[in-house]
Amino acid sequence: MVGIVIVSHSEKLAEGVVELAKQMTAGKGVVIRGAGGLEDGSLGTSFEKILNAINEAYSEDGLLILMDLGSAIMTTQMCIESLPEDMRAKIKLCNAPLVEGAVAAAAAAAQGLSLDEVKKQAENVPLIKVQEESVEVMEAPRGENVASVDVQLVNPTGLHARPASLFVQLASKFKSKVMVQNISAKKPPADAKSIMDMAVNGTAEKGEWIRITAEGEDAQEAVMVLKELVESGFGELEEDEVKVVVKEEAALSEKGVFRGTGVYPGYVVAPAFVYRREEVKVSASIKGTPEEELKKLEEAIEASIKEVEELKDKLSREGDPKVALIFDFHAMVLKDEKMLNEAKSLINRGLSAGEAISKVLEEWARKLEEQGTDLMKGRASDLRDMARRVLKALEGRKTDGVSVEGKVVLIADELLPSEAASLDRNTIAGIAVSRGGTTSHAAILARMWGIPSVVGLGPGILDIPQGTLVALDAADGKLIVNPSANEIELLERKQRELEVAEEELKGKAMEPALTVDGHRVEVVANVGNIDSVAETIEYGAEGIGLLRTEFLFVDRDEMPSEEEQYQAYKRVAEIMGKRPVVIRTLDVGGDKPLAYVPMEREDNPFLGVRAIRLQRLYPELLKTQIKAILRAGIYGNLKLMLPMVANLEEVRWVKTIVDECKEELKAKGVEFASNIEMGIMVEIPSAALMSDLLAKEVDFFSIGTNDLTQYALACDRGNKNLAYLFDSMDPAVLRLIKLTVDGAHAHGKWVGVCGEMAGEKEAIPVLIGLGVDELSMNAKLIPAAKALIRRISYEELKLLAQDALRLGTAKEVRELVIKRCGL
Predict the structure, then answer these.
(1) Contact at 8 Å (CB) between 301 and 340?
(2) What is the CATH number of the domain that holds 469?
(3) Is there a contact between 597 and 621 (Cβ–Cβ < 8 Å)?
């Protein structure tokens, strides 16, 4: 944030103006300093006082100085002339009334505005306007080389660390200047290519709208690709995470009992291991030249990045590839040019490498904390974790993990991500921390690893003597010190009951989904990468209803070879065994282009060259993929599915391509599966209307309800002004689904649903009643979906579906389902 200095002939006047201005910042941490009077308190202006105030309030975002009388201006100008050139460039004198200008400047600085904007508001905006806390929303640009799009955050935790790092990675691939603004919260625009700027100004919560603007030769492509990333939910790690506000001041609520907030349920009785983090001090005594300090910093950052990459590799090798993704944010921050430039500037002003990196990362951490959310406090911990790592690297040391012996309950003030990642899950029976929140990366790790954990227990837990017997009730969010025999017996019984219940749920998830009157519905999973395949079985998936293959094609400069694709599909087939695996061919287009496929810019890429239409322009894309699938088919039960099919002619064309691929493989003597089934995605209304004819040409249908809804209702699901329209439970969409089912069943073909609708509890009864044979969803939703299916009657659901088709709105349909099914 921009710093502010008040220069006055009167010490008391300067102090009063500073106090008044601070009240306008709403605690946002704007640094405001006064320089009033002479050293003895008499009236006048002091060179030394002004210089000290400038050094204290100076920020890399700039410094604004307001003055009262003529000599104050002259003395201030003399001070500025004595400063280094890089500092002088970021300091502006303000020609505004002292009191009104200071109030306006403080309010503007608290909004995160630029130095020029803060100066402008101080000089031009009436006092009544300075209390506004929002900034103007960027206007959607116009012109040949500019583009803009508004998109809503759909992933549960919004645009934060890992999604932000993915966003920055993708934005950085384009030549255009890319900016992002949270238009719901009216935050300042953020540079989409700076992870630090995104972490502070570019954040947004689920449901909020952001505006992505780009200016340059590839602007249109940039905004469409980034829009697709946001709409896809970033493939987010914390997709099922629930936000809970944690009160860190939670304290001893009764004798020997601390209360907090549970992160992952479970009951543990074990000795306490109180972890006290080694303090890493910033040394300023031994300091080289700016060039030497800069070299030391660059080497330490390079060593830290290497450590982070090694930690990621270790976690991936141990079977935790998703956990490893947490540290993408760490690596990107350490590589961030803005962060490094700020540290360089501080080194050039005389700070040591350690002082510089500590000051920069602590400032960014403070900015995140000022946003007030539990999520941002967690990301501030990430930044402090990185600062510790770099400081240790400056000392030539590596960052150590947490080492314990025997089964213990780990007690700590807070666990930094690198500390949590180093935990030995064989020795840590439970985790209890005094601070931190449920959305911190440490909490996410504990939840993913299934370690009973409680956060926000208060600082009193740090006084528990080492080795004291404690009982952790993570379900109720409490820690009991020296539990009684009865308390121990109760918690141990609860843990046994919990384990039995989990085993029963897991066991039932493996069973088929049969309605009370014996009708079977196949429940399978949607998968977007190989790492997620195995876990689908653990959740009870009877197969994979949609394997998205885009993960093999994106973020690279050349098309994946037939061999590379073959090995990937073979691996999936081997994991799934006899279970069916439906592989969707490449589904990309103008909204998510490939670097190695030439594509013209389209005004409406969703109605343009995409999916099967793109493959028709570049048949080699399709042929290479089909041959890989045919070869891998001998290792399992693979099926081929075509996206975005609009008519019969497209299906017949693909069938000729499949025949050509078989002939080529046969000519080379390559073994392949000759009887792989081929189906299509029904996501265009024309396919639903022609389903009776299409069913003669293919083996199955899979309805993509997201796009079917979008096309049927002519409603862009990313358009905030049309949010009231987009609902897959709309009777018009249900009628298209019914048409598709009837057309398929008339020819003995099965129908699945692989859109988000398949996993919605209110939609499942209607889909089954309409005759859908298979539901494909996020694997984690499968146990609950099967449990729902087992308690409803198929005959009653058919009547429910008939009644739903007669209704006029999606709201009426949902109300009917809730009433009939007791949801």
Answers:
(1) yes
(2) 3.50.30.10
(3) yes
* Amino acid 134: pLDDT: 54
Query: Are the C-beta atoms of 582 and 544 separated by less than 8 Å?
Result: yes
| Res. 675: pLDDT tops 80 | yes
Average pLDDT over residues 780-798: 90
User: Rounded to 10 degrees, what is the CA torsion of 398, 399, 404, 409?
Assistant: 180
Closest CA relative to residue 171, chosen from 152, 151, 150, 193? 193
Mean pLDDT of 91-105: 85
Q: What is the CATH number of the domain that holds 686?
A: 3.20.20.60
Shared domain check, 469 and 366: no
Closest to 3 (Cα-Cα) out of 125, 119, 132: 119
Residue 498, in any domain of the structure? no
**Domain end marker among 342, 376, 394:** 394
pLDDT at 481 over 50: yes
In the listed set 107, 131, 155, which residue is the last one of a domain according to the structure? Answer: 131
Q: Which residues of 55-79 are buried (b: 16+ CB within 10 A; e: fewer)?
A: eebbbbbbbbbbbbeeebbebbeeb
User: 26: buried, middle or exposed (CB in 10 Å: 19+, 13-18, 0-12)?
Assistant: middle
Place of tokens 């992933």: 155
Domain with residue 332: its CATH number is 1.10.274.10
Residues with Cβ within 8 Å of residue 126, at least 6 apart in sequence: none
User: Phi and psi dihedrals of 587, rounded to 5?
Assistant: -125, 80
Q: How many domains does one find in the chain?
A: 5
DSSP string, 575-608: HHTTSEEEEEPP--BTTS--TTS-----S-GGGS
pLDDT at residue number 254:
43
What Å distances lie between residue 161 and 170, 198, 368, 431, CA to CA?
14, 9, 11, 23
- Contacts made by residues 699-702, CB under 8 angstroms, sequence distance 24+: 699/639, 699/749, 700/639, 700/744, 700/749, 700/750, 700/751, 700/752, 701/740, 701/744, 701/749, 701/750, 701/751, 701/752, 702/545, 702/546, 702/582, 702/641, 702/751, 702/752, 702/753, 702/754, 702/774, 702/776
CA distance 675 to 666: 14
What confidence score (pLDDT) does residue 205 get? 80
Is residue 241, in this structure, part of any structural domain at all? no
**What angle separates helix 374-394 from helix 353-370, to the nearest 10 degrees?**
170
In this predicted model, what pLDDT tens digit does every residue of 172-221 receive, in sequence order? 888 899 999 988 878 888 888 876 677 667 788 877 889 999 998 888 88
Identify whether residues 524 and 611 lie together within a single domain.
yes
CB atoms within 10 A of CB 101: 27
578 in the same domain as 462: no
Which structural domain, as residue segments, surrounds residue 259? 252-278+401-484
Q: Please identify which residue in the block is written with the tokens 């020819």.
A: 747
Residues 444 and 376 in one domain: no
Same domain, 93 and 166: no
Tokens of 769: 């009643």
Q: Are residues 700 and 730 in the same domain?
A: yes
User: 600-643 pLDDT, tens per residue?
Assistant: 776 677 788 888 998 898 899 999 999 999 999 999 999 999 99
Question: Tens of pLDDT along 395-424?
Answer: 888 776 677 777 899 998 887 777 877 777
Sequence-distant (6+) residues with CB within 8 A of 70 are none
Annotated catalytic sites, by residue? 441, 754
For 131-186, what is each residue's pLDDT tens digit? Answer: 334 566 666 666 778 888 888 888 776 776 567 767 877 888 888 999 999 888 78
Task: Give the type of residue at 57.
Answer: A
- pLDDT at residue 244, rounded to an integer: 37
Q: Going by C-beta distance under 8 Å and a sequence separation of 6 or more, which residues neighbour residue 607?
A: none
